[in-house]
Structure formats: C-alpha cells, structure tokens
Predict the 3D structure of the following.
Amino acid sequence: MLLGPLLVLLLLGGATSASAHAALESTDPGDGSLLGRAPDRVTLTFSESVGLRDDSFRVLDPGGHRVRTGAAGRAGGRSDTARVDLPAGLGEGTYTVAWRVVSADSHPASGAFTFSVGQPSAAASAPVDAGPSEDPLTALLHKTARYLAYLAAALLIGVAAFVALCRPPDTTGLRRPLAAGWWTLLGTTLALLVLRAPYEAGTGPADALDADALAGTLTGRPGVLLLARLALLAPVALLLTRTARDGRHRSPWATATGSVLAVALALTWSAGEHASAGLQVPLAMTSFVLHLLATAVWLGGLVALLTTLRTTPDAATAARFSRVALTSVTVLVVTGVYQSWRGLGSWPALTGTTYGRLLLAKVALVAVTLTAAAVSRRWTASLANAAAPARREERQRDRDRERNLQRDRDRDRHRERKLEREPIPAGAPPAPQPSAPDSTNAEPPTPGPPTPVPPPLCDPPTTPGDPPTTPRDPSTATDALRRGLRRSVLVEAVVAAVVLMITTVLTSTVPGRAADEAARSAPAGGVLPASVTDVPFDLGDSARGTVQITLDPGRTGDNAVQAVVFGPDGALAAVPELRLSFTLPDKDVGPIEAHLVDRGGYWSANTLTLPLPGTWTMRTTVRVSEIDQVTESRRIRIER
C-alpha cells in the first residue's frame, strides 16, 4: 500500500523544488538600479515574517569575489525584513546580492539581484547566481521523511481512534500497526531534525553531521517543533503500554488523554506549515489540526478495519466505523474547502500555478476515494443485514435456554415442597434429593411451546411444480460479503495514501495566493531587467559625454528614474541641469515630465507614470553651462 505513493512522491519530488510561502516585496537598492554612490546597507522586505541564517546574504563584487559584510539583521526590528551592512569604500561596477531565508512555514526561500555603483560592469547582463537552491538528495530524503511522518501519524492516531470509537471485540491484532506507527514517527522525526540544517542551507546530506548546524536547528522554530513532537511520543508510548497491559483501552480516562495527545501532535505540524503564515492564522491552524485528525481517523481506521476483518470479522465493528468515517469525510470536506480558498486566492490560480494543479489532482483522487467509501458502506450494510438473522437466532436460542432453565428450577422447587409435606416412616431410607432427578421415575417434563423457526430470508419463493432447491449456506454468503468489503476497503486505503502523498507535496509548494503576491510585488530573481538607455551628447570641442538613464521596472505604470552623467573620460560629471520627458506619438500622449532631482552625483525621480505600452520618445536635455544646453532623443519600448 505504501510503495505506490512513495514512488509517485519521488517522481513529483524530483520535478518540483520546495518553495516558500513568503514573497519578496522590495529590495533596497532596487534590482538593476544604478547608484551614484555606494549604499551603506542592503534591505529586503517580505510579505510575511522570515527567519535569518548565518549565511542569509552573500554579496559579490564586480570581479565575483565575496564582499565582507556584517551579520544579517532586521530593519527597524520588523520580522518581515532582512538587512546586512556593507563595508565603506565600495568601488564602481555591478554588485550581486544572493540571499536565503527561512519562510514562516519552515520552507527555505532564496533569490538574487544586482545593483551598480557609478556605472555597470561589462558583465552586468550575466545571469545572477543565487547560490544553491537545494541539494537533490537532501530534498528527496527530506520529502520522503515528511511523507512517512504524515503516514505514521495517521496510522498511530487512526488505529487508536478505531479502538476507542469502533470497539472491536479483539484488539490483539491492532498492536502491531500501533507499534509500527509509533516507531516510524519516532524515526522520521529524528531524520527531519538532522536533515533540517542541510535542507535550509541547500547543501548535501553530509552536512547533517555538523554539530554547529544541528545546534542552530535546535534553537530555531522548526527544530523546537520537532523536539516537541519527540517529547510527545514518550507519553503516547506510556499510554499505549498501559492500556495494552491493563486492557482499559476503552476507559474514558484513556480516551481523553489520547485525544489531548493527538491534538498536540497535530499542532506540531500546524505550527510549522502553511497554516502558520498568511491570513487568518488562528482559524487556519485550527482548520489544519481538524483536517489532519480527520485524515488520520479515516486512513488509520481503514488499516485497522482491514486488520480486524482478517482476524476477527465483526459486522457491528464495520458498521460503527462506517459512521465514524462519514463524520471524518464531512470534516475533511469542510476544512479542505477553506484551506483551498486560503491557499489559492483566485480561480486562475487553480490552473495557472503548481499549487492549483496539485490541488486539482488531490480533489480528483478524493472523489475516487469517496466512491470507494460509498461502495464500502454498501458492503457494510449488506454484511450487517446478512448477520441480522444469525443474531436473531442466537438471541432466540439464548431465550429458549433461559426459559428451559427457569422451568427446571420451578420443577425442582415444586418437588422440594411436595417432599416436605409427605411423612417419612421410621427406619425408611432417606428421600432422594431433588437436585439430581432420575430419568426412570421422574415425571416427564411438561412440554413447552414449540420454538418458531424463522424462514430463510434469502430463499426465493416457490411455486407448485418447481424442483426442490438447496438452501443457501448463510456462512458462505457472509464470507463472500466480508471478502468484498475487504477489497473495497483496501482500494479506499491505497487511494487515501496517495491523497496523503499529494498533501505532503502541497505543503512544500508555494500557494497560489503567495505566487500572485510574488508576481505583483516583482520579487528579485523573477523580474524583467530594468530599462537602461545610454544617451550620448555633445560637450563642444569634439568632446562627448553620456547620460545613462535607468527606468525601473521599465513597464507601464509607476517607474523609478535614475540618471547618471559621465564625462569624456568616463568619470562622473556634474551638470547644472538635467531634464527628461516622454512622449507617445502614436497615441498623442505627452510630453510627460520626469522631475529629476540632483542627489549629489546622480539625478533621480521617485515616480514617473507611463500609462500605455508602446514605443515612447525620450527627450533628454543636458545643460552643460549657464548658457548652453543639448537635447537628444531616443526611442524606448515600454511593455505592459
């Protein structure tokens, strides 16, 4: 049952990388910006709180060498920011900033961007190296451990809930799946704990042996949650051992304690997944806990039901689980709809994002599982109906046996009273004791009313002239129903395991809502490059200068403008005035003035609104002296 989902997990895990819930909203300096002087620090702003690492920032100079920076910190104490101080005296050229943080939902996020000081380097258009995204082997081991942890929790919680709610006649066969779930959850939690550091850093599994990295994991929120899970497994083992020894698995105390431990275990997942970040966090975490517990009761209960049907088949237990499963499915549907709305954010994200497509696959498999569950309910109802006559006959036999015993007791009391009234002659042998009646001289028992025998329910009606039919063996029919129920439950369990696998992948995939936020906020590493235009102009005496104009992002809407003036020798040059205007001749729009302000070495305008896409004419006017100025025009393309 586990092999198929695990293979699919490996295929999906190799095809998609883990993505974080946090979206990068802005950088300072901006991506592709041209600065007149070197900045003092680099600041990133995210859509939610992020965790910092020792190597959250790597700043590379124009030659590709790493710049010595300060420790990563926060901007203004805000948890949704990351900042690093830069050394003084940075030279001209293009600098690369590679960053890596841990999202609030415990998944790492990384990216990179560039900025230039003075003038861009010759290799400024080269691809930005954001550092390692993830090591394939580490990612595979981490995802496999996460899936097995989910499966083990479902087995442990579900089988225990089956024992408490469905009351099987014999729980001996269920001790093995309970032990398997506990030991698997223990092993996978330890594996996730040691793999956490290389998973966050994007390095190989060998780094899991680094003592310093492990110590850092134990102080972070994901590590604390994993330690809490390990701590909860101790009282779980104690509860399972005590109930197995004392046989009080159905006591109210054991049920209440087990419920509290199950909720606490579910919280260790809820506090470290998508529910812990974004909007409506308290409601989302509650929904996640209910969703996980309902999944465990359903999937683990299916495994317990299969085990029970093979060892001590009982129609009443199957009927009780059918009612429990129906309640679990209802909870799954309600919480699943809420989580889908919270994760998607819009209908286009259902087909336009990886999260949405995985969600569609999960919904399709859930529909298959519900179909198998409906078939299982029909088999359960048929099995209960087939077992009803046998139960009625058993109850009738018990009543007849009790009536005959009562009649024997009445006869004995009557004989005792009769012997007490008769005189016994002197020297006569003692009267026989009434407790051992003799069949040779005892009075014949009074015949009671004949026991009615119910007609067979499954025999078809007969008509005169039909050949005699052989009655159908009820036990054979019941065995056939049990085999059918086992097959449908097995299909239901296998498909439910695949659904759990897709759920594991979903928790490692950026939700559609976060993807839309990332697209709107234009995160680094995923934006189009800023528009950079060089405008030569005449300085007189055959000397020529250049104005380098940067539009960021170079799209319709609001743009930031930066302009740097270079002299004939390529060095920064100061001019008395610099003006910039934009016209769209095809639409008769403009001129739109960019109100440039001298920033002491470069000119800039915080906001320039270009409302329409098309080929715009950019007019640059440079005043080179008190009485002389030069105007140059360039055509630039503005995309939507």
